[in-house]
Amino acid sequence: MVKLKRSKRRPPEGWELIEPTLDELEQKMREAESDPHEGKRKAEAMWPIFKIHHQRSRYVFELFHKRKAITKELFDFCIMQGLADQNLISKWKKQGYENLCCLRCIQPRDTNFGTNCICRVPKDKLESGRVIECVHCGCRGCSG
After folding, report:
1. Does the predicted TM-score (pTM) go above 0.85?
2. From its phi and psi, is residue 62 left (phi > 0), alpha (psi between -120 and 50) or beta?
3. With bands split at pLDDT 50, 70 and 90, how would you rate the model's confidence at 144?
């Protein structure tokens, strides 16, 4: 069961519809956090966690903005409970960032040359046959 922060409010109407999926993603997150990380680089151990965090935020985003299946109240509740990343969702609404994998990929301070991550480079601009992986989250290309 998804652990909700303590509040006097009950979950809004429609919560029972999205709770099973969020429970499943929460279980995957716990498994990813407890997986052994021997033989992996420090950053590689975090990749499954970033991936599940992205899936959870994308699920809530698509339910509210694309399918219009949940109410604004339920969407705000998910944001307040930390079930979805508000900053990542706000980037997905902007043109050019619709497929963004994580916020670290667009922060220039996290790269050697003060630019965006390699996964933000369009595939047609890269060498053909070259497999790229983001150092931060393991993404193989989120520029579209």
Report:
1. yes
2. alpha
3. low
